Amino acid sequence: MKGMKLVLAAMLGGALLFGGTAFANEPIKIGAIFSVTGPAAFLGEPERNTVKMMEEEINKAGGLLGRKIEVVVYDDESDATKAVTAIDRLIKKDRVVAIIGPSTSGNTLAIISKVEEAKIPLVSCASAKKINLPVKKYVFKTAQSDAIFVKKIYQHAKKSGWTKVALLSASDAYGSAGREDLKELAAQFGVTVVADEVFGPKDTDMTAQLTKIKGTAAQAIICWGTNPGPAVIARNRTQLGIKTPLYMSQGVASKKFIELAGKENAEGIFLPAGRLLVEDQIDPKHPQKKVLAGYIRDYEGKFKGGVSAFGGHAFDAMNLLEMAIRNGKSAEPETIRDQIEKIRAFWGAGGEFNLSAADHSGLTEDSMVMVKIVKGDWDLIK
Amino acid sequence: MSSIRETSSAPGLALFAAAIVAAPFLLPDYYQSVLIVAGLFAILSMGLNLLMGYAGQISLGHAAFYGLSAYASGILTTTFHWPVPAGIAAGVVLSGVTAALIGIPTLKLKGHYLAMGTLGFGVIVYIVFNEAVALTAGPSGLTGIPRLSAFGKIFSTDREYYFVVWGTVFLLFVLARNLVRSRMGRALRAIHTSESAASVLGIDVARYKAFVFVLSAVYAGIAGALYAHFVTFISPGSFSFHASTQVVTMVVLGGMASLWGAVAGAVFLTVLPEWLRAIEDYDILVYGAILVLTMRFLPGGLAEGVERVLSALASIFRGKAKASGGEGKKP
Fold first, then answer.
1. Where are the domains positioned within chain B?
2. Structural domains present in chain A
3. Which one-letter DSSP state was computed for residue A285?
């Protein structure tokens, strides 16, 4: 116990030592909170990797405004309470000028009041529309709102002549947010919801819900959830011999989904996704091509694979901050905030960002493409 | 056991109060929110310790009472615009009443079955938080909960809130301390040792068990309502089974049947990860190792560790006194 105390004391001492006071040419400190561990680790890990990689790249290229940058990343373990204590540490101890993250909508909502009070700009990597509704002065986000995906799906379904749809959503924050938008926007596209089923995010069998849907007049099934639920649904669907087309959400937009579901079960599934997923298939002249190719090359080179749209949200957040600092020639939180709001026509990993005082997300459904899974790979629908 | 009771005597309490007052001035600013969270967990684990440590009844669903009160107060103050103190009171009452209702059937169960029963209750409440979307806003969480305000004062800074939380910890500590030293406390310990023996001695086992169950739910309720008005956002994730096990860990690590242990366990497990942030990437490994080592060498928890250190010190002093006494006689 005594030895342990010594170790702890040494660590505490170390922590105090490294958190010294500001010097003239001190690095610009940017904070980040990601769910690197816990149930949302599939979001947090690529996000952490991305910002750490970009920190290195920016510093190698000479830093920002002649200063190096330092990204302080804390893991909130997918826990809202931990996000709250981490934000205090970033604001009061590390004294960062801007913050990236958190990874999940819940954790972002939990800390919004803190950043608004401290007047530090926050660029969240989460998607919930509540984050920007109403618009908060210091809060931005780079993940596309669920409504954008919903619109993309409904556009595609309508074009294909499928106007009766069955909803199948996970009973978690992600699933319920999508379900809300799916129901709300249906009428606008002339789509009727004929079934509205829900599954537990950890359920291992969804045949009950699928059998129910099979008995309805649904012409398409729209599933909203993150792995492993949707993978189970894809498997159960082939087991039950259901031929009704199946849409998935962005929540499964990684190769992991195809792996979990199995190639033959994932065959033919549609999903809306950022162009990151099908970078190799987009027109080389497309303004996003260069950005995406660069990000994928750097990420895969450094981490040997695993590039995902989620890391892309952190990539965009970091780029927004970098641009804001360069454009405003200042690393003051207030200037950074004002400058982020002025960014227009920036092509990031998620699409084209056009921010304004009224829109702190800046993406539209044009940032998305529809993708079909063919032979275990993504196929861009032109 | 006797030395624990010695340490919780009046000077111990005075020292505790002094530590509470001094902590925010001695520690850096950013520790305030960590300490607030630690205080909330201290209330939770004190309540659970009364139930688990003293009365020997295991609850694996304590986060449910914590969450019920948080949601009740959150919903009443946000959706129905109740004043915050009224919301908190309603939340605490709801936790207590629910515990009384749940207690009637579940407290007939013993050991593993009681654990299973409370576990099931915790899961059910968690599902209700997720599914009653119209009321709780579902999995995406309830936003816009007001900060604590009472008597025209809004406790908006963390420092003010720290004193509210730790003042509450102190009051509840004194209450629990008086309780365990009373006839009631002895009865609870008797139940812990043997329910049949206790009832032979004339202790109304069912009533005492129900009382302590409700009391520990009330403690959890107070912590939950204070949590809701601190973070101003609640989502079901904070009240899942994981949270229940976290509190059980704090009680066990701190020391069963020790109120000091409950507070120490809560503070230790909340503050430790903050220290470990300095060694990022390895923090989880070290955290786990510390837990394993503590339980391996201090099965009685942190309270036992402190007790051992104290008795070791005492024996050293006694030894010295003897030795010097012996030398004095020689010439």
1. 2-325
2. 28-144+292-362 (3.40.50.2300), 146-279+368-380 (3.40.50.2300)
3. T
**Residue A78: φ, ψ to 5°:** 60, 25
Predicted-complex ipTM score = 0.78
Please report residues of A whose CB lies closer than 8 A to that of B235. 80, 106, 109-110, 173
So what CATH class is B2-325? mainly alpha
The DSSP code sequence of B172-209 is: HHHHHHHHHHSHHHHHHHHHHH-HHHHHHTT--HHHHH
Closest CA to B8 of B163, B167, B179: B179
At B329 the pLDDT is 42
Neighbouring residues of A77: CB distance < 8 A, sequence distance ≥ 6:
A35, A36, A37, A38
Lowest mean pLDDT, pick from A234-248, A312-326, B1-15, B125-139: B1-15
Q: CA nearest A128 in B: which residue?
A: B140
Our measurement of the distance from residue A232's CA atom to the centroid of its chain's CA atoms, rounded to an integer in Å, reads: 22
**Beta carbons within 8 Å of A180's beta carbon, 6+ residues apart:** none
User: E strands, chain A, where?
Assistant: 28-34, 69-75, 98-100, 122-124, 139-141, 164-170, 192-199, 220-224, 246-247, 270-274, 346-347, 352-353, 368-374, 377-380
Task: Say how far apart CA B18 and CA A288 lie, in whole Å.
Answer: 61
State the pTM of this model. Answer: 0.82
- C-beta atoms of A88 and B34 within 8 A: yes
Interface check B131 vs A, CB under 8 A: yes
φ, ψ at A160 (rounded to 5°): -85, -5
**Residues near A41 by Cβ (< 8 Å), separated by ≥ 6?**
A35, A78
Q: Does B167 touch chain A (CB under 8 A)?
A: no
Q: Residue A15 and residue B309: Cβ atoms within 8 Å?
A: no
CA-based radius of gyration for chain A: 22
Shortest Cα–Cα distance, B128 to chain A (Å): 11
Q: At residue B283, does pLDDT exceed 80? A: no
DSSP at A191: -
Contacts of B47 (CB under 8 A, 6+ apart): B62, B172, B176, B215, B216, B217, B218, B219, B220, B223
Q: How wide is the angle at C-alpha A91 spanned by C-alphas A87 and A94, nearest 5°?
A: 105
- Interval A351-368: pLDDT, tens: 999 999 999 998 988 888
- From the candidates B231, B294, B302, which should be mutated to test the interface with A, based on the most A CB atoms within 10 A? B231
